[in-house]
User: What shape does this take?
Amino acid sequence: MSFTFRPVDPVADAPVLHSWVSQQYARFWGMVSATEQDVVAEYSRIAESGHHQAFLGLDDGVPAFLMERYRPESSPLAVVYEVQPGDVGMHLLVSPPAGDPQPGFTTGVMQSVMAELFADPVTRRVVVEPDARNHKIHVLNEKVGFRPHGVVTLPAVDPAEDHKQGLLSFCTREDFLATLTPILAAPAAATRGEFL
Assistant: This one.
């Protein structure tokens, strides 16, 4: 796995993005019934917003995931929690597997996304608000250091719903780094007589 990021081209990338967001596994993305033109419109809106960016994640040059980065103070989150300096919001959608699923692939994607966000020295904390029913993403978020803050009510992403119940969660740089280092830190701590 070798991940890189590039900005989404709303028109050129619409076919691949549509093939992901229109599948049932992506139902929490709220675009299952979207057309390809709807995808072009949504990602054109994001590109023009000035506070929200979308990136295509590539695995050895092949589209593998979609990552959105946004400023929480310019989003519906601004009314449900006190935005702190250095907060950055994130959305993630991993493509369906092209062949046999690769163990650890999604965790690797998430670690790559977090490393990319924290590569900006201004970023102090990553904020997510996945659908409270999306238990798979909650497990993944916990693996990379997110801590749940509580369920919040946000505008609906699914046209069939009146609102979204999102699990507001935060991950600091320190919490993320701690998920990467315990195994490496254990031998050094043991030589000092410490236990992790």
Q: What stands out?
A: The chain is about 30% helix and 25% strand.
